[in-house]
Amino acid sequence: MTEQGSSETEDRKDDHIQIVQERDVETTGTGFEDVQLVHEALPELDYNAIDPSIEFLGHELSAPIFIESMTGGHPNTTELNRALARAAGETGIAMGLGSQRAGLELDDDSVLKSYTVVRDAAPDAFIYGNLGAAQLREYDIEMVEQAVEMIDADALAVHLNFLQEATQPEGDVDGRNCVAAIGHVSEDLSVPIIVKETGNGISGETARKLTAAGVDAIDVAGKGGTTWSGIEAYRAAAANAPRQQRIGTLFREWGIPTAASTIECVAEHECVIASGGVRTGLDVAKVIALGALAGGLAKPFLKPATEGPEAVIERVEDLIAELQTAMFITGSRTIEDLQQTEYVLQGKTREYVEQRPL
């Protein structure tokens, strides 16, 4: 296993948070604008009877909204994670952590606390951990279990971020044998496995491989939200690495639109989370109508987290109200009803899907 110095690992985590907060790291092209839900003028439904709760991997969640993996690995992220976790616990939604690699490999209590704070702040919330697919090849199952035990995780996300790695001067660009590694961990780990992209989407073909490997859920994390290659381009510029800067900029808008990725993945797996440019409760409603079980957001929670848990809670409550309004005017009392609601697919997303017979 290639060890990295603590300063390099921690600084990279801190760089990421600062760039997301301060720079233009948004892309367009989710495809949500091409998904038109059919209005129900006679919903025959009491708004107050709408139930947005879901069952996810054996746990009851109050709403199909996930605080996506963002933070951890630097002392500066501890209070952010505390605010996010407390909000997740109080609103009954799920929360994912950023990569736990630093917590496993660095002997630093302040780094470890940036992760363990989530369970301290939210003892009953659905919290899932996070490791990279490349690390699964390096770690034995006991070390992966340490990531679970670190936060008493209810599940473990395995992130796929090979484009991001290719834009980092220090990136891990060996993508071999990851499917087999995911399969081994899916079979042997004590908690369910979620495989997630990081902003470039998952194709139907890849979803089929992941389903065969036994993963419990797929998070598409498609194109249209935060661009990690764009983030790495900013880091490369600061590090005077012009080749990586050019590559990061060139591939800034690379990927499968979130709407199209969702459609492809739900055809291959029964439990799909849609993230990547999800910004409103209406976006959540659209991905559920496409067949996903839930929608995930990352960057929209970051600024509220700097203000404290109450600001995050308010943002979650806004999203739930927007989602419930969409459910009301499509006549959907439950999330299962919303998954069956009528929609029209238009524009570039329809063209993409029609040219991708799987």
Mean pLDDT: 93
Helical region count?
17
Largest sheet: 8 strands, parallel, barrel
Q: Order of strands in the sheet with the most strands?
A: 4-5-6-7-8-9-10-11
What helical percentage do the residues reach?
Answer: 40-55%
- Secondary-structure element sequence? HEEEEHEHHEHHEHHEHEHHHEHEHHHEH
The oligomeric status of these chains comes to: single chain
GO cellular component, one term: cytoplasm
GO molecular function, one term: isopentenyl-diphosphate delta-isomerase activity
Main location: cytoplasm
Binding site for Mg(2+): 165
List the helices and strands and how they pair.
Blueprint: H1 6-22, E1 35-37, E2 54-56, E3 59-61, E4 65-67, H2 78-91, E5 94-96, H3 101-105, H4 109-121, E6 126-132, H5 133-138, H6 141-151, E7 155-160, H7 162-167, H8 178-188, E8 193-197, H9 204-212, E9 217-219, H10 228-238, H11 242-250, H12 258-266, E10 272-275, H13 281-289, E11 294-297, H14 299-307, H15 309-328, H16 335-339, E12 343-345, H17 347-354
Parallel strand pairs: 4-5, 4-11, 5-6, 6-7, 7-8, 8-9, 9-10, 10-11
Antiparallel strand pairs: 1-12, 2-3
Helix pairs in contact: 1-10, 2-4, 2-14, 2-15, 9-12, 10-11, 12-17, 13-15, 14-15
Q: What would your notes on this structure say?
A:
By secondary structure, this protein is of the alpha/beta class. The protein is built from 17 helices and 12 strands. It has helices spanning 6-22, 78-91, 101-105, 109-121, 133-138, 141-151, 162-167, 178-188, 204-212, 228-238, 242-250, 258-266, 281-289, 299-307, 309-328, 335-339, 347-354, and strands at 35-37, 54-56, 59-61, 65-67, 94-96, 126-132, 155-160, 193-197, 217-219, 272-275, 294-297, 343-345. The strands form 3 sheets. Strands 4-5-6-7-8-9-10-11 form an 8-stranded parallel β-barrel, surrounded by 7 helices. A two-stranded antiparallel ribbon has the order 1-12. It has a two-stranded antiparallel sheet with strand order 2-3. α10 runs antiparallel to α11 (242-250). The longest helix has 20 residues, at 309-328. The model is unreliable at 1-7 (pLDDT under 50).
